[in-house]
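hey so u asked for the seq, here:
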Amino acid sequence: MTGEPGVPRRVVDLLAAAGQTVAAAESLTAGLVCATLAEVPGASAVLRGGLVVYATDLKHELAGVPASLLEAEGAVHPEVAAQLADGVRRRCRADWGIGLTGVAGPAAQDGVAPGTVHVAVCGPDGRHARTLELSGDRDAVRTGAACGALALLVEQLG
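ran it, structure tokens below
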């Protein structure tokens, strides 16, 4: 994965040092975050698993995002990312959850512009979310989303 070199390694090292684990609920990235972490030797000690919740109904059914939130705000919303992070954390029994939702493009989705991405992490100290405005093709947006989510986790792990 392109992006800031060493971030996936740093995630694995920080989690291992803390004796903690992570799981991810991924929409637009469709497993890219988990695959990126799994490339790091030693990831099996910290990576619990993940949910690919590309379809809106699976965000509710698998990750526990409230249906009322999805109906009111749509699938691409900061609170949806936060709920994904919280839901995967609980579902996979991990210390940390990562949630990602957004529009990879090329077309808008529900009035949301391509490149709009919401990432969130949920952990022992609460939830932290960030909105990213990314440019480029689908690959660039998806890679940027994964990098942004992992960078947010590194910030929280300190």
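The first helix runs from residue 7 to 18. The first strand starts at residue 22 and ends at 26.
lmk if thats what u needed
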